[in-house]
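Hi R.,

Here's the chain you asked about this morning:
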Amino acid sequence: MCFDGAFLQSAAILVVLHADLPFVPIKFQHFIPTDLKLVATSAQPTVRVVDTFNGIPAAKAYAKALGLGVEELTAGIFSAHPLMLMVGDDYYVRSIQRVLPDGGLVFYCAIDEALVFTLGRRADSAMVIARQAFEEVVQAIGEPQVILGCDCILRRLEMEEAGLDLEIGDLFARQRVVGFSTYGEQWNGMHVNQTFTGLALGGEDV
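And the predicted structure, written out as tokens:
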């Protein structure tokens, strides 16, 4: 990253904003939970690895839940069928990065032992979900002046693969979204994947 004219490695920048304008956070993702559960029976949280689900190698358990063989697991499968973690009354996406030689699974974000994951699947209405989220922003603060957005790179690649990149790009432009593609998003202190998060700034007080 670049800060104050210098490029930094292994660093983070904290930005604190004060606004007199009305503002509202925004979050959306287009996955819905299935009835399939996978319990992390052994894991290595520091390196984001789940070794076993339900007592068997994690990759084997995940593939079995999808009716696939481990050799059929690809980035496309991981993208279309992420695992989801329920916190409170909402589901948060936990994306799989790759399969390890010993059958463990590496995740893109924080995991822990004994967590109960739910297999997710894509909703049929990704664009509808995005539009509804932006409409809720307008209802809350009026037409936004700008939306500072963080959109997961996996979402961007998925939109490109589905041929929706121009449509979603046009929607973002009309909603005055500025930001970048990310490798992990934050929502209320929680690390999530395959999610759009942002902060919308409105005009005059409503």
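The chain has a mean pLDDT of 91.

Let me know if you need anything else.
M.
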